[in-house]
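Quick entry between incubations.
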Amino acid sequence: MAEESNKLQELSIDCVIFGFEDHQLKILLYQRAIEPEMDQWALPGGFIKIDEDLDRSASRILKEVTGVNNIYMQQINAFGAVNRYPQKRVITIGFYALINPGNYNIVPGVGAKAAQWFDIAQIPVLSFDHNEIYLYALNILRKKVRYEPIGFELLPEKFTLTLIQRLYEAVLGIEFDVRNFRKKLLKMNLLIKLPEKQEGVAHRAANLYKFDKKIYNELKGKGFMFDL
Amino acid sequence: MAEESNKLQELSIDCVIFGFEDHQLKILLYQRAIEPEMDQWALPGGFIKIDEDLDRSASRILKEVTGVNNIYMQQINAFGAVNRYPQKRVITIGFYALINPGNYNIVPGVGAKAAQWFDIAQIPVLSFDHNEIYLYALNILRKKVRYEPIGFELLPEKFTLTLIQRLYEAVLGIEFDVRNFRKKLLKMNLLIKLPEKQEGVAHRAANLYKFDKKIYNELKGKGFMFDL
DNA sequence: TCAAAAGTGTTTGCAATACACCCATGC
DNA sequence: GCATGGGTGTATTGCAAACACTTTTGA
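Done. Structure below.
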């Protein structure tokens, strides 16, 4: 820090929360109840408090705006174009997270008229530079998915092989061969086959699996190439 | 942005500049000429101006502190622990870059008593949380190197296959088999064999190569797995 | 002629790909 | 019994890994 700043600026956080539901990848948006950009859909966000670490700030903001609590978010990038926010200079730090929508109750909170999940195929025009932030996050997710396991956070505890295949297909926007996908996935030893099957489906019931948390975490560190 | 902030905070930028020289990976540090932490070695950094985009700010700061001009830096992460900086709350955005030290003239500038390259095996204790920022950057570099080509920015225009192997070895801290390394590298079509050889070496002169910029950029986008 | 680094090929095993049919269940 | 998705195996091909000797050059 070689020089003193001549003016102060403000710092905010915006959250891109991904969820997987109905075989579709979604993000969580809220509708602004205050100016600027009243009524627009936007990423859940807010200002950082002066006595608050970044991660805690992100969690608080997400909770306040959408009611979603207690999730692990990861920083992705700072966005600081001079005019990205009207009237004053606001630099924002983007965070993202993966969650299973079924586990959370969405309740619009501070400054929000509404909050809901949007299919990534139908994201509206968002406030400020939020479309850019969202696209950046999606890009990160698409890269990440090829180098380390995802799914633990997005899927229910017990799931079928078809569901995890649909997840990968939804994230990457491509389709996989059933047999090769399963071979590759099972070879990692990432999944544990449960002695349980689906219930109440109008066709042959699929076997349920869960993640082997230990191997999952190992692969997070080490990385792999998911090439399908 | 659902809520107004109650207090303003300051924002800085810190740069982790990697270079490759004498078969070693290095980073560029400067010695602080002002308080706080006078005389300590630190990452080149400074405060963001209110009318300045982040990238431009990073370039300006690097230039002012070390004399290094006109390089492309990439954002890596924001660091915002409440007490990371003494006296006041300062959140900093880390940037990193890869350059060939031979192409730049280091001249300690604003607030710097000295500026020089340090082998990554001998990084001193740095100011504030700069060791953490540096390690974060090193980690990113080590991941990146496995998924996309590096070297263009770090190596001289013409180089030997052995030199690029040494670069990968220095970055990753492991050794590769000569034959397999060359096979893999050449198979990418990334390198163009020049009709020139090393000169003035006391052993068999090695062939020189350069990057095929077009394929280099393609691979940057697409990614690959460097598994050796 | 010696020292120092450059340069080169083969074998083996595993993983990626492409591809089609039978199975279990509920209605 | 039919519609719906579940579940499985093989043949081919290419890449990764392991491994040691000869060549060139300058001093």
